[in-house]
Write a structure and sequence with these properties.
There is one protein chain. This protein is of the alpha+beta class and 179 residues long. The chain has a single domain, classed as 3-Layer(aba) Sandwich (Aminopeptidase), CATH 3.40.630.30. The protein contains 4 helices and 8 strands, in the order E-E-H-H-E-E-E-H-E-H-E-E. It has an 8-stranded mixed β-sheet, sandwiched between helices. A hairpin with a 4-residue loop joins strand 4 and strand 5. Helix 3 crosses helix 4. The two termini are 15 Å apart. The N terminus is likely disordered.
């Protein structure tokens, strides 16, 4: 899925000499950084490691997000890994966007939008027709970003829905690639 090159986030450079943000595919040497980002993400939600078998997911990384059916993207800024997002298969034509996270000091710079745009492109390239996501009601920025991107609210798509979660879907047949 996708090339190995670094693509730049659109709004990541303010023109004031601040470093640009690069979005790239996960590589084996990124495991520690990826685990740190996932832990920070989970901690920010206030959830236990037992919830949704997160501790097991952390131990088994990079699975279930490996090609050809999935991918992991990392955002870097100034030599530091500052964000991530993942994609995994649900069925042959349906995928789920997971773990969209940007560290607090880097929020508001367009990094989340760039990660989501790349995940959508990766899903299209892999041949998925529908992309699903879920988020919690208090995650207003994520909800806004998903809505701006064309996601619509749907009934839960998972076998074990998270109580209170908002489930979203994007029809990829109507999506135009971002880059």
């Amino acid at each position: 899925m996708g090339g190995k090159g670094v693509k730049r986030a659109r709004r990541a450079d303010s023109g004031d000499g601040c470093p640009r943000t690069g979005i790239r595919h996960y590589a084996a040497h990124d495991l520690h950084s990826l685990q740190e980002l996932f832990r920070e993400y989970w901690s920010s939600l206030g959830l236990s490691g037992d919830f949704q078998q997160f501790s097991e997911e952390l131990r088994s990384l990079p699975r279930p997000y490996t090609p050809p059916s999935g991918c992991l993207l990392l955002a870097s800024r100034g030599g530091q890994t500052v964000g991530c997002m993942a994609l995994r298969a649900i069925t042959a034509d349906k995928a789920e966007a997971k773990r969209l996270f940007v560290r607090a000091p880097c929020r508001g710079l367009g990094i989340g939008k760039a990660l989501l745009g790349r995940i959508i492109d990766e899903a299209c390239e892999a041949g998925y027709r529908q992309l699903f996501a879920d988020t919690l009601p208090h995650m207003k920025s994520a909800l806004s970003l998903y809505a701006q991107t064309g996601f619509v609210q749907v009934t839960p798509y998972s076998r074990r829905p998270t109580p209170g979660a908002i489930y979203l879907e994007l029809d990829l047949s109507k999506h135009k690639r971002s880059g």
